[in-house]
């Protein structure tokens, strides 16, 4: 198995673990990701589409489904009424915080068979990759 194969299977493993966790909260992985992306502050829909790698149409459909569940709400930007902002409702905030906390707690288990040095190396590499990608939570909208 070459490097690309290993990255592919690591991706499958992480996605499978994340999907199992999301199902425990009666959310699809896409809904959970959306909630976590807006849990701390409202974000522009265009920013979310780009950050999540979705078309604007696909994001709108996801938002429609999540909004029907009372977990997110849309509002016009105060600076530009043409810009739509997406934020969590109080119920969405509680759910997003719970899903995020469980993800942060349980996802590292994918590296559970590594020794302490290996786990630190993986953390260092994951941090470098995410920081270089520009998709971290600290990216402003």
Automatic annotation (TrEMBL):
Supply one GO molecular-function term: DNA-binding transcription factor activity
Q: Which Gene3D superfamilies match?
A: Winged helix-like DNA-binding domain superfamily/Winged helix DNA-binding domain (1.10.10.10)
| Key words, A-Z | DNA-binding
Q: By its UniProt entry, which InterPro entries does this protein fall under?
A: HTH_MarR-typ, MarR/SlyA-like, WH-like_DNA-bd_sf, WH_DNA-bd_sf
One GO term (biological process): response to stress
Every HTH marR-type domain range: 1-131
Asked whether the UniProt record includes DNA-binding among its keywords, one would answer yes
Pfam families named in the record: MarR_2
Entry keyword DNA-binding: yes
The protein's matches in PANTHER family, at most eight in alphabetical order, are given as:
TRANSCRIPTIONAL REGULATOR, MARR FAMILY, TRANSCRIPTIONAL REGULATORY PROTEIN
Q: What is this protein called?
A: DNA-binding transcriptional regulator, MarR family
- Look up and give the organism this protein is from: Streptomyces melanosporofaciens
Per the UniProt record, the lineage of the source organism begins with: Bacteria, Bacillati, Actinomycetota, Actinomycetes, Kitasatosporales
